[in-house]
Amino acid sequence: xxxxxxxxxxxxxxxxxxxxxxxxxxxxxxxxxxxxxxxxxxxxxxxxxxxxxxxxxxxxxxxxxxxxxxxxxxxxxxxxxxxxxxxxxxxxxxxxxxxxxxxxxxxxxxxxxxxxxxxxxxxxxxxxxxxxxxxxxxxxxxxxxxxxxxxxxxxxxxxxxxxxxxxxxxxxxxxxxxxxxxxxxxxxxxxxxxxxxxxxxxxxxx
Length: 206
Known about the structure:
7 helices, single chain, mainly alpha
């Protein structure tokens, strides 16, 4: 991979980590362990992902997230718990992929990877808050299943064509950010629509 493809791979992986950190780790680990993907020598830091302990832990996390993400309001609690875990995971993945002896590149990849994962996570959490406003549970299941398909497809694309995957992932995250903005306005309007009780005035006898 040339430097442009490495940066694109780091960007798309970090963005996807903001959505499905465990899935990204699980798929990458399996692909490396069974030789489905041939990573260049400068990605040798990712060998740890091929360890069965890491694959097993990521698999358990993927399974737990698969079900938790489809239950109304449980998904929001899950997102709140992972508000720190996903950006950190995205930062570490980017740091491992952008292999450079230059400490400046390492610091930039860590910060930008964490920032990309945070943006993706924030957009996802905001979009899900908007979906949770619907009284029926089916829309939540459909949106979550769609995220599973998109994340898996983009992960495969990131391996085959990192630059294209980074562009598509960026567009998807921007869409999530737009939904977060809409969710924020919706919830603000909903809060303002709730009637507030006026404080009772104390009547002092004359």
